[in-house]
Amino acid sequence: MTRLRRRVTAVAWAAPMDVDASGRRRRTAGFTLIETIVVLVIVGLALGIVAGFLPRRNAALELSAATARVTGALRLARSRAMAESRSIPFALAADRHGVRLDDATIALGPSVTVEMVQPRIVFAPDGSTSGGSLRVVVDGRQRFLQVDWLTGRVAVADAS
To answer: What is the domain count for the chain?
Structure first.
């Protein structure tokens, strides 16, 4: 009896196993490795199926992001012209999917098209510009940007 009691207390700390009356260990709780792997595979397959139905991209968000990048580049050109006391040109990239600021090209992505009436906008050291307008287009949606010739201020408007 004493020997059995020692065995029970010596093994009692093992969490998933317990000792029956004959002194053998038996399983009481927990999951096997196979059960866990099967559940993870099922969850992975379900997530893969659900992810296939989610939209890949959102044209409105892409238009907002592209407009923000072009607006930021225009404002940067004005700031650099004033800080460096020299004229800074702003023009379209050759493929019309980006803009050129001085000698650096800012890519906007293959689905974004930028159009300008004039070939370039030049920002002067006093903050003024040659003025101009741009149109940013993504999947038929468009936004217009207007650069004021006197102040260099950039205004954004949705297409009506």
So the answer is: 2
**Both tokens of residue 155?**
């205004």
Please say which residue of 34, 52, 70 terminates a domain. 52
Residue 63 pLDDT exceeds 50: yes
pTM of the model: 0.65
- The boundaries of the domain holding residue 32 are 2-52
The HSE-up count of residue 104 (CA atoms within 13 Å, CB side) is 8
Closest CA to 134 of 144, 148, 149: 144
Taking 70 as the threshold, does the pLDDT of residue 3 lie above it? Answer: no
The span from the CA of 39 to the CA of 45, in Å, is: 10
Cβ contacts of 153 within 8 Å, gap of 6 or more: 147
CATH assignment at residue 82: 3.55.40.10
